[in-house]
Design brief:
Length: 292
C-alpha cells in the first residue's frame, strides 16, 4: 500500500456518505469559501493564514505570550549581570525559541483549524481532548527545539532543513489524534517536494514580522544585552523580568502568525499529498446515489 493511500486511510475516519469533518450536513451541502478549491497557491495560503490570525488575534496573541514568557525569563535570569553565563544563556535561548514556537503552533492549531473548516477547508476534526495532547506537545517541543537549535548553532543549513521537515508536526499532533512519533512521520511525508513553497511562506512571514524578530535577535547578543542592562540601571532580576515580558509579547505576534500560516499550509498539503478533496467527492457521490 502506498504512503499516500495509507495516510489518507488513517486520516479519514468517517464512513462514505458522512459530511466533512467539523461541518454540519447543512454547511456541507453548500459552497463555502474554500470548497471546490484544489491546490492553493503560496499567496492563497498566506492570505488564509492572515485572515485566521485576524479573526482570533487577541486570543492567539495571549496564548502565545503565555508560552513564550517563562521560556524567555529563565535564560535571561541566568545571564543578567553574569558574563560567565552568557554563552550558556544564548544557547538556551536558541533552543527555547524552537520549543516555544512548536508549543505555540500546537496549542493554536485547533482554534485556527476550526475557523478554516468554517471556510470549507477539509481539515480533520480531532476526537481527543487538547489536554490529552499536552505530554506529546511538550515532548515534541523538546525534540524539535533541541534539534533545530543545535542545527542552527552548528551550521545554518541543517537547522533550516529540520525546521522545514518538522514544521507540520505540531499541527498534525493535535489534529490527527496520533502519537508524537506519528506526527513526526506524517510531517516528513506531507512536506515531501514542498520546500520552495514552505520557503516562500517563511520569507513572506519574515517580511511581515522580520523587523520585530530582528530587533529581538540583536538584543539576544550577549554584548548588546549586557550594554542595555548596564545602561538601564535596573537590578538583574528587574531587567530580566521586563526584558522577558516585552520580548515575549513581540515574539508572540510572530509565533501566532507562523501558527496561522502553518495550519493553512497543512490544509493545502492534505489536498496535494493525501487527496482529501477526492475522498470528499467520493463521499458526496455515494450520498447522492443513496438518496436517488
Amino acid at each position: 500500500m502506498s504512503a499516500r493511500v495509507e495516510s489518507t486511510r488513517e486520516l479519514r475516519r468517517v464512513p462514505f456518505g458522512a459530511p466533512s469533518e467539523g461541518l454540519s450536513p447543512e454547511r456541507d451541502s453548500h459552497s463555502t469559501e474554500l470548497r471546490g478549491e484544489t491546490h492553493l497557491g503560496m499567496a492563497q495560503i498566506f492570505d488564509l493564514g492572515i485572515r485566521g490570525l485576524r479573526d482570533e488575534f487577541g486570543w492567539l496573541l495571549l496564548v502565545s505570550a503565555m508560552v513564550w514568557f517563562p521560556l524567555r525569563l529563565v535564560p535571561t535570569l541566568l545571564s543578567s549581570g553574569n558574563a560567565e553565563n552568557d554563552l550558556a544563556a544564548t544557547v538556551l535561548l536558541t533552543i527555547n525559541n524552537g520549543i516555544a514556537q512548536t508549543v505555540t503552533t500546537a496549542l493554536l492549531a485547533r482554534r485556527l483549524a476550526a475557523g478554516y473548516r468554517e471556510r470549507g477547508a477539509l481539515i480533520p476534526k480531532p476526537q481527543r481532548l487538547l489536554v490529552a495532547c499536552l505530554p506529546g506537545i511538550v515532548g515534541l517541543g523538546l525534540v524539535t527545539g533541541i534539534a533545530t537549535g543545535i542545527g542552527m548553532c552548528m551550521l545554518l543549513i541543517p537547522g533550516i532543513y529540520l525546521s522545514f521537515k518538522l514544521s507540520l508536526a505540531p499541527t498534525i499532533l493535535v489534529l490527527e489524534d496520533g502519537s508524537m512519533a506519528d506526527a513526526i512521520r506524517r510531517s516528513l511525508h506531507l512536506t515531501t517536494s514542498s520546500f520552495w513553497r514552505w520557503a516562500g511562506l517563511m520569507l513572506s512571514m519574515l517580511v511581515l514580522a522580520g523587523p520585530i524578530s530582528s530587533g529581538i535577535g540583536v538584543l539576544e547578543q550577549p554584548v548588546v544585552r549586557q550594554e542595555v542592562y548596564e545602561w538601564s540601571g535596573l537590578s538583574a532580576t528587574a531587567f530580566a523580568w521586563i526584558y522577558a515580558a516585552l520580548s515575549s509579547v513581540l515574539l508572540a505576534f510572530a509565533a501566532a502568525l507562523t501558527a496561522a500560516v502553518m495550519t493553512a499550509y497543512y490544509f493545502d498539503l492534505l489536498v496535494r499529498r493525501d487527496g482529501v478533496d477526492l475522498a470528499q467527492q467520493l463521499r458526496q457521490l455515494r450520498a447522492r446515489s443513496a438518496d436517488a
